[in-house]
Automatic annotation (TrEMBL):
It is found in: Membrane. This is Probable peptidoglycan glycosyltransferase FtsW. PANTHER family: CELL CYCLE PROTEIN, PEPTIDOGLYCAN GLYCOSYLTRANSFERASE FTSW-RELATED. GO terms for biological process: cell division; peptidoglycan biosynthetic process; regulation of cell shape.
Length: 411
């Protein structure tokens, strides 16, 4: 097949394989696939695929440790159990990412609005019919069909909030901040019922970032910042889990939250056990004492087996993702696109920053996966939807009018 390609040999119908690809993806192509390939930000797509590939390697490294932890005399979990499940989730997620990235902007916006409504209903149902796991009720469904509504709500919430805030460009008297504050407050309330303090921080942080991008006055932002500090203090005073984790982070084993201190201390030990270059794939040993090695603390597993250089590469990839989008948005004049893309990339950046801070001991322990790296079906599919939306909102075509992509206010 390689020889046929290089020689321009004829394929079916008397057309060379190279010519067929150029017809579909070349600059002159007017097919939907060709237009998509020309307009998509291929650097962002490459970063996403690199993170997914690194994630598969990382889950393969963490799977034996988690399999051993969850095995007992009655049920033995195969060492690569979580890796092969993650391969399946990636096989589902990548097509989702690509299909969503091909959507016209107005279709993607409508999908996000409907998705936000559906996920909000599911989130409200979690305290009633949700599934308990590790002392929290965050999942809904049964067996293989279980999913985490808050994961799917994040990208839909961001796009919906961006759309509401963008209406301010048409009429600055619309109470867009009050509307988005009410929606965010409802989500925060439902998340704290689970409880899920980590996701609460992500939703609140992304909402504040969207307000800043939308141009809310500094006085209002200062008031919201003070309210956020008040919320953290209230969580410490009235939310036992938050108080235990903050105490264990600040005071170590002497506090009541010694179990949480063990997790962060062990994560730091695993992270630094491999030194600069790591112990090598599969050679890690300290990871077997680490809880949730395949999910919340997978960044530490990467450090032990592949070294601090690999950890730095992951951090730089997330930084490159954020910087790439922000640079592209400097020339964006559509309010909705600007807000939606800024909010979506902020979610990736905030979530990655929190996860890496927990793994390095810079933040208290909390259930926060590293985007595209950690194991998880709901997380992987939801992140792929978010990345697909980000790619859809950052598409650029220098040859066709922007109106053909549905970027107007109608619809």
């Amino acid at each position: 097949m390689t020889d046929v390609w290089r020689s321009g040999g004829l394929g079916p119908g008397g057309v060379s394989m190279k010519a067929r690809v150029e017809q579909q993806l070349g600059r002159a192509s007017r097919s939907p696939l060709g237009i998509w390939f020309r307009d998509i930000d291929r650097v962002l797509l490459l970063i996403a695929f690199l993170l997914i590939a690194i994630g598969l390697v990382a889950v393969a490294a963490g799977s034996p440790a988690s399999a051993q932890r969850y095995s007992d005399a009655a049920h033995q979990v195969p060492p690569m159990y979580y890796f092969w499940r993650q391969v399946g989730w990636v096989g589902v997620s990548v097509p989702v990412l690509l299909v969503v990235s091909m959507l016209p902007v107005h279709v993607a916006r409508r999908m996000a609005l409907l998705g936000a409504l559906a996920c909000l209903v599911c989130l409200a149902a979690v305290p009633l019919i949700g599934v308990d796991a590790n002392g929290a009720r965050r999942w809904i469904g049964y067996g293989f069909a279980q999913f985490q509504p808050s994961e799917f709500l994040k990208p839909f919430f961001i796009v919906s909030t961006a759309w509401i805030l963008s209406l301010r460009a048409q009429d600055d008297k619309l109470p867009v901040m009050a509307i988005t504050a009410a929606i965010t407050g409802l989500i925060v309330f439902l998340l704290m019922l689970q409880p899920d303090f980590g996701q609460t921080i992500v939703f609140g942080a992304v909402w504040l970032i969207l307000l800043m991008v939308a141009g809310i006055s500094p006085r209002v932002m200062a008031a919201l910042g003070a309210a956020g500090i008040g919320g953290i203090i209230s969580a410490y005073l009235f939310y036992d889990t938050a108080r235990a984790r903050i105490d264990s982070f600040l005071f170590g084993d002497a506090a009541a939250g010694a179990a949480d201190s063990y997790q962060t201390d062990m994560a730091h030990a695993v992270l630094t056990a491999g030194g600069i270059f790591g112990r090598g794939p599969g050679a890690g040993t300290v990871k077997f004492r680490l809880p949730e090695a395949h999910t919340d603390y997978i960044y530490a597993v990467v450090g032990e087996e592949f070294g601090l250089i690999a950890c730095a590469v992951i951090a730089l990839l997330f930084m490159a993702l954020v910087v790439r989008v922000l640079v592209k948005l400097l020339e964006e004049d559509d309010a909705f696109r600007l807000l939606a893309a800024a909010g979506l990339v902020s979610q990736f950046g905030v979530q990655a920053m929190i996860s890496m801070a927990v793994n390095t001991g810079l933040a208290p322990s909390k259930g926060m996966t590293l985007p595209f790296i950690s194991y998880g079906g709901s997380s992987m599919i939801a992140l792929s939807i978010g990345m697909g939306l980000l790619l859809a909102f950052t598409r650029r075509n220098p040859y066709l009018a922007r109106s053909s992509y549905g970027t107007g206010w109608s619809g």
